[in-house]
Amino acid sequence: MLQLAENLGVMASCPDQPKPARRVLAQLLLIGSQPALLPRQVQQEFSGASYSVQIVSTGAAGIERVRDHHPDVIVLDLHLPDLCGLEVHRQIRGIDPRIPVIFVTMARTADAAIEAMKQGAFDYLFRPLDPDKLRRAVEQALDVVVRSRSPAEHTTNPSNPETGSCIFGSCPAMRDVYKSIGLVAAQNVPVLITGESGTGKELVARTLCRHGQRANAPFLALNCAAIPEQLLESELFGHEKGAFTGADRQRSGKFEQCNGGTLFLDEVGDMPLVLQTKILRVLQEQSFQRVGGSETVHTDVRIIAATHRDLKSDAAQQKFRADLYYRLSVFTIHLPPLRERGEDLPMLVRQYLRRFSRELGREICDIAPEAMERLQEYAWPGNIRELQSVLKQALLRASGTVLLPAFLPQLQGPPEPRGRQPKLDRIDDFLSQRLAPDASDLYAQLHADVDRRFLSRVLQYTNGNRRQAACLLGIARQTLRQRLRELGLQVTKSCT
Question: Rounded CA gap, 174 and 181, in Å?
Fold first, then answer.
C-alpha cells in the first residue's frame, strides 16, 4: 500500500541529500457531494508533491475506487446523493478496515459522530473545514497507516444520523465526548460520567444506552442524593415483606426491575458507604439479596454512574470506597461546563429557543445580538439546566418574534464593572483558564471569542447591515458572511 514510511525514514536520516527523482505519493480519496466546494479545499490543502488526490462524487463510485485502488486515507462526506455516508463507510471497512476514514459534515447533532466512531472512523470534522485541523487529521491518519495499526471494531445497521439526539455541540470538548461514547457504547463495561451539575450527564447515559447492545432493554435512573439513606437500599435492592415498618409486601428494587438493561446511578458520590459495599458486590458477582431476605437474586445489569464530585480525591480521603471507584471508572467521560463551550452557546441558545417556543406557544424565531452578548458574558454556574431555565423565563415574558435583552431575567452573579471587558477577553485570564497539558486549539478558541464579540458590536452599530459592516472592517462581504456562519452568529436588523 503506502511506502511513505521508507521515504520519511530516508528524509529524516539524510536531510542534506537531494530528493529522489521519483517519490511514492500518499493516495488520498475524497468522496464528496459538492464538487465546487469540498474538493477544492482538499486539493488546495494537499496540492504538494507528497500527495495525490482522487475525487468521486457518489458513494458507489467511492466504494468501487476503494475496491480497485486501496487509497491510503479517505475523506468522506456524510451526505452523498446516492448512499448514506455511514453505509459507504461500512462497505469500505468490509473491503479494507485498515484504511483510515475521516468524516466531514455540516451536521451538528451527536448521533452521526457517535455512529461514525462506533464504526471505527478515524476522525469527524465539521464544515466549513478548518485547514489546520484537516491537515492534522490526514497526517495523523497517514501515520497510522505507516505504523500498520490494527483496525478498530465497528457496529452495523447505524441509526439515522440526523435524528434522535438530545446532545448538541461541536466544540472540541464535546467532540471528544461523542467519540468517547462511540468507543464504549457497545462494550458491556461500567462507565463513570463526571462533570458539574447541570451539564447533561443523564443525557449522555441515555445516549450510551441507545447506542449500545442493551438499547431495547430497560433503562432506569436513580438519583442517589435525592433519596433518604434508609430508603435508598430498598430502592436499589428491594425488600421482603416485614423487613421494616410499612413493608407490607415484597418489593423488587431497581437491580431486579432492570435485569438485562442499564441502571444509571446519578450522584453516586453521595451514596452511603454501607451501600457502596453492596454495589461493589453486584458489580463483581451480579447478585444481591433483598432487604430483610436471605435469597440470592441474580441479575444482569450494566452500571453507568455519574457524579459532580472528585471521586478519586474522595477515595484517597476514605470518603468513597476506592475499590468501587476503580470498578466504576473502567471508562470515564468528562462533560465540560457550559462556560468552557463558548463556540456552542449560540447554537444551544437557538436550539432551545426553537424547542421552547413550540412548547410555550411563542413565535420567537431569532435573538437580538445584544441579548446573545449578555448570555455569552455570563458564567453559567448552573450550566445547561440554568440556560434552559433562563430561556424559558425569557420566552414567557417575550412578545414579537425577536428575543430582546429586556425579556431576559436578571442573571445571578456579580456584573462586570463598566468599562471592563469580561475575563475571557483578557489574554492572561484566558490562558490561566485554558492552558493545560491536554489543551488544544487555543489559538482558534481565542480568535473565535474575540471575533464573536467584535463582529457583534460592529453589526450592532450598523443595525445588521452586512455591507456597511464589511466596509468598516475592511473585508469582503463573503468573508464576513463565512465568519458569521462559522461562529454561529445570526444577523438581526433593527426596526428603528
Answer: 11
- Fold of domain 339-487: Helicase, Ruva Protein; domain 3 (1.10.8)
Per residue in 39-65, pLDDT (tens digit) is 566 666 776 667 888 889 899 999 999
Residue 51 backbone phi and psi in degrees, to 5: -130, 145
Percent of the chain with pLDDT over 90: 40
The predicted-structure confidence for 191-224, as pLDDT tens digits, reads as follows: 999 999 999 999 999 999 999 999 999 999 999 9
Phi (first) and psi of residue 307, to 5 degrees: -160, 150
Residue range(s) of every CATH 1.10.8.60 domain in the chain: 339-487
Can you give the pTM of this predicted structure?
Answer: 0.65
Local structure of 75: helix, strand or coil: strand
The verdict on domain 4-173 having CATH code 3.90.228.20 is no
Q: Which long-range contacts (CB under 8 A, 24 or more apart) does 355-364 make?
A: 356/388, 356/391, 356/392, 356/395, 357/395, 360/392, 360/395, 360/396, 362/395, 362/398, 363/400, 363/401, 364/395, 364/398, 364/400, 364/401, 364/402, 364/403
* Strands, E assignment, 15-139: 26-31, 51-56, 73-77, 101-105, 123-126
C-alpha–C-alpha distance, residues 361 and 310, integer Å: 41
> What is the dihedral angle through the alpha carbons of 13, 16, 22, 28, rounded to the nearest 10 degrees?
60
Please, where in the chain does CATH 3.40.50.300 lie? 186-334
For 291-302, the pLDDT digits (tens) are 888 899 999 999
What is d(CA 35, CA 40) in angstroms, rounded to the nearest whole number? 7
CATH architecture label of 186-334: 3-Layer(aba) Sandwich (3.40)
Contact 72, 2 (CB under 8 A): yes
What is the per-residue pLDDT across 357-411, written as a single tens digit (0 to 9) for each?
Answer: 999 988 787 888 888 989 998 989 999 999 999 999 999 988 777 888 888 998 8
Q: How far apart are the C-alpha atoms of 357 and 364, rounded to whole Å? A: 6
Select the more confidently predicted residue: 242 or 157.
242
Handedness of CA 123, 129, 130, 134 (dihedral sign): positive
Nearest to 272 by CA among 225, 314, 341, 213: 225
**Residue 263's beta-bridge partner residues?**
220, 303
Q: Give φ, ψ of 404 to 5 degrees.
A: -100, 160
Mean pLDDT across the stretch 333-355? 91
| Per-residue pLDDT reduced to its tens digit, 316-327 | 999 999 999 999
Torsion sign, CA atoms 356, 358, 364, 369: positive
Q: With contact defined as beta carbons under 8 Å apart, do 108 and 170 qualify?
A: yes
Cite the residue boundaries of each domain of the chain with CATH code 3.40.50.2300. Answer: 4-173
pLDDT at 237 over 70: yes
